[in-house]
């Protein structure tokens, strides 16, 4: 009979690691929503649903959101690839 490795009774975690992983998860969700908003905006532009002013405002808003995401990722030394989650046979969560 093969002896199974024992599982520690207590998880070893440090504050910085937990904080970074939580922040990484939050940024992953925000990046997913940002990408979905961008696709929806492009679809609406292609369909002609928006005025020129709305297109301008939407573009500026998406640019500001992308810039803020880049600043947050840099603060925690993360890349978009770090935020991606492998969903197995479904592929990755975030589009490239």
Automatic annotation (TrEMBL):
Example of a GO cellular component annotation carried by this entry: gas vesicle
Gene Ontology BP terms: gas vesicle organization
UniProt keyword Cell cycle, yes or no: no
Localization (cell): Gas vesicle
Swiss-Prot/TrEMBL keywords: Gas vesicle
InterPro entries membership: GvpK (IPR007805)
Tree of life domain: Bacteria
Family: Belongs to the gas vesicle GvpK family.
Protein name per UniProt: Gas vesicle protein K
Organism: Nocardioides euryhalodurans
């Amino acid at each position: 009979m093969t002896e199974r490795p024992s599982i520690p009774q207590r998880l070893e975690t440090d504050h910085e690691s937990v904080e970074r992983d939580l922040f990484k998860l939050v940024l992953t969700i925000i990046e997913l929503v940002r990408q979905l908003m961008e696709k929806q905006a492009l679809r609406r532009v292609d369909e002609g649903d928006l005025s020129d002013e709305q297109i301008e405002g939407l573009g500026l808003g998406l640019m500001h959101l992308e810039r803020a995401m880049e600043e947050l990722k840099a603060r925690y030394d993360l890349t978009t690839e770090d935020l991606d989650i492998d969903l197995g046979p479904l592929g990755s969560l975030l589009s490239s």
